[in-house]
Amino acid sequence: MAQPELEALRSLIQQAHELLEPLDLPEGRGKRARELLSAALALADDLVNTKPAATLGAKGGNATAKRGSDYYRQIAAKRKTNAGGRPRKKTEG
């Protein structure tokens, strides 16, 4: 989500939390609703404060490490000999 949308979501959660505060619902429902909204508010705060690039940057190098150096050696060799790409169609004739 974009930053303004996250801030709007956080605002909506905050308003719902404030509306439920004075209410006393039966069977502890109000208390549980306030707990859930508090957790949602904390998550929304975290999403608002975390930069998207920081999240993506944490993954850096994992796919490269899985493939290994042999994979990249083969790709480079194909580039040098023009052997990469889709195989040619065989024509019947």
Describe it.
This protein is an all-alpha fold and 93 residues long. It has one domain. 70% of the residues lie in helices and 0% in strands. The protein has four helices and no strands. Helix 1 (3-20) packs antiparallel against helix 2 (29-49). It is elongated, with a radius of gyration of 27 Å. The chain starts with a helix and ends in a 12-residue tail after the last helix. The model has no long low-confidence stretch (mean pLDDT 79).
Kindly summarize this structure in a few lines.
The protein has 93 residues and is mostly helical. It is 70% helix and 0% strand. It has helices spanning 3-20, 29-49, 52-57, 62-81.
Mind sketching the topology for me?
Layout: H1 3-20, H2 29-49, H3 52-57, H4 62-81
